[in-house]
Amino acid sequence: MSSVESSSPQPEMTRRQKVIQRTKVGGTLAVSVAGLLYAASLERGPEITLALAVVLSLWSLVEVRKMDLFLAVQGYVVACVSTVALAAALYKWPQFAEADGTPQPIEGPFLLIAALSIPFALWVLRTTAVRAREGTTLKVKSVPSVLLLVTVAMPLLALYPIRLSGGAAGLAVYIVLAKIGDIAGYYVGNLMGKRKPFPGISPGKTVAGCNASLITGILVGLLCVSLGVLDGARYGLLSGAILGAAVNVLAQAGDLLESAYKRRAGFKDSGTTFGPSGGMFDLIDSLILSAPVAAVLWPLLFQS
Q1: Can you say how many angstroms the Cα of residue 205 is from the centroid of all Cα atoms in its chain?
Q2: pTM of the full predicted structure?
């Protein structure tokens, strides 16, 4: 074979080949997640969950830094330090109490994170979509460090209060709710999706896929309550439906937000660690907006 032939570009994969390859990678990742959830079910499960959340958060921050989304290196350093500091505070949280000795709710910080991240995320999505529709480019691709702080650095730490409130089963259900809609939306969108609601942000998303994702999330939430996987539902099946819908809508929004970040930075994926599935930030995008809200909703919908 000549050198010209050996250096010729490989043919682009067909949609069917991409689906098969992503399915294989997804199966491998599912086994890995199952192993991590088993570790979270052990006696030191809460601490393992918190440590894992820190690792995933810092990993994602490294990828975001490589995409040049931080305005300055100082913002990156602050985000990393803040992540570790909040994790340490959460670990010591039982020591925090009101004046009368009543323990403060551990979900408190995540209520603030959710209150900041959602409007910030809507701003990023709107500005990115407008720029794409107008065909103009962003003069500054970076985003404010406070936005990256509440949408990349800190949200995964909400897995810790979810584990405390819902136990290992609750944590597993949350992960399933956050990812199952993405899986349903991906396959339904590839099979029958035509209309694209967010062409300027995520051209691959379709109306059919988004609807299938939401319906799947609600059904899985209902199923988990009806089968007793989620105990102590304050409002019966409605608790499962609310949790499933809230997690799914915010998981889809998180996926869009991560796509907007990559579009601003000019990257197709946040990394190459997981092949066609991209980097770590690509994998946890469905958690960045949904995890803090799930942590806040859990004690409201379910009795511990």
Answers
A1: 16
A2: 0.87
